[in-house]
From TrEMBL:
SUPFAM superfamilies: Nudix. It catalyses: 8-oxo-GTP + H2O = 8-oxo-GMP + diphosphate + H(+); 8-oxo-dGTP + H2O = 8-oxo-dGMP + diphosphate + H(+). Its cofactor is Mg(2+). It comes from the Bacteria. Its EC number is 3.6.1.55. It comes from Candidatus Phycosocius bacilliformis. This is 8-oxo-dGTP diphosphatase. Belongs to the Nudix hydrolase family. Pfam families: NUDIX_4. Residues 39-167 form the Nudix hydrolase domain.
């Protein structure tokens, strides 16, 4: 059995995302030996926030790993792709919305070891997009108020991002 460890942190500067893998390893004292010889999967995710402060979650469809769990929309970063570009591409493919990289605000990241791979996932927020989000891959969507996010079953990697996002939204409302 693999022991899972999840972590999330607030990232103060967007520049850190360009080399976020190295930064995460340095920040948490991780080594390749510690992570093991597992495959490293880089995934970019977004918290789309509507005018009422609700966050969009997508439910993983049947047939995919972790089917039925709710997650922040996004997807894998391809080789040679900037994380922001990958996220914009994934949001269009999955939800049919256009997001400009300049409209993404870096919030934090999660680092989580699953049984067969280690996942690094930066999370951005955005309040600006073109189009109406719809599940283009058969996934259900839900607009969720921040205080209800913990009521949705989510993958282990997403869970530590909930308090980071909730705190950010609370600070934004009271600014």
């Amino acid at each position: 059995m693999v022991t899972s460890r999840s972590m999330a942190t607030i990232v103060p500067k967007q520049d850190q995302f360009y080399d976020f893998g190295r930064q995460i390893f340095k920040t948490y004292g991780l080594t390749l030996e510690r992570v093991g010889r597992m495959r490293l999967v880089l995934v970019a995710a977004a918290a789309l926030i509507d005018g009422n402060g609700a966050v969009l979650l997508a439910q993983r469809p049947e047939g995919k790993s972790l089917a039925g769990l709710w997650e922040f929309p996004g997807g894998k970063i391809e080789a040679g792709e900037r994380p922001e570009s990958a996220l914009c591409r994934e949001l269009f493919e999955e939800l049919g919305v256009d997001v400009a990289p300049a409209d993404l605000e870096p919030l934090g990241f999660a680092s989580h070891t699953y049984e067969n791979f280690h996942l690094l996932m930066p999370l951005w927020t955005t309040r600006t997009w073109q189009g109406q989000p719809r599940g283009r891959e058969g996934q259900a969507l839900a607009w969720v108020q921040p205080e209800a996010l913990q009521d949705y079953p989510m993958p282990a990697a997403d869970l530590p991002l909930i308090p980071v996002l909730s705190s950010h939204l609370f600070q934004s409302q009271n600014a």
